[in-house]
Description:
By secondary structure, this protein is α+β, with helices and mostly antiparallel strands. 26% of the residues lie in helices and 31% in strands. The chain contains 4 helices and 4 strands, in the order ααααββββ.
Amino acid sequence: MKTLLALALACTGCMALPPSSMERLNQTAYELNAATRFGRMDIAADAVIAEAKTDFGKRHRAWGRDVRIVDLEIEGVQMLTSDAAEVDLVVSWHRIDDPTIQTTSIAQRWTQTSSDWKLAEETVASGAKGIFPPKGDKKAGKPAPSNGRGEIVGSVDMP
């Protein structure tokens, strides 16, 4: 009887269900955002759709170099359709040359591919501007300078 009970308990672990789509999205979003927080864009880029990798690289190039990410929190995850979702982040950051902590809310659009969830787009939803270079900036690599209140000032000097 004890053997049968032990066998039944052992098999229960074998029949664990695979993670749901939402669980996979949560895990992938967490891994991508943890990698970006610590400047590991090589790891983060694996979770970005091919069409957005160049833009993602340009927009995050300054993170870890000119911009220090102090904290990053996933505030919410919403399924929009069966293969599209939005992840809301709050990022606390400061420019290396300015110790004033800024806070920016970012909305990430995710899409489910045949293999997994991939980041498709990021937009600043609210808060301090300047965490990303100005949109359409072909030399993107440095965030826009701010005046300590999250307002972009002057022009961006690009190397």
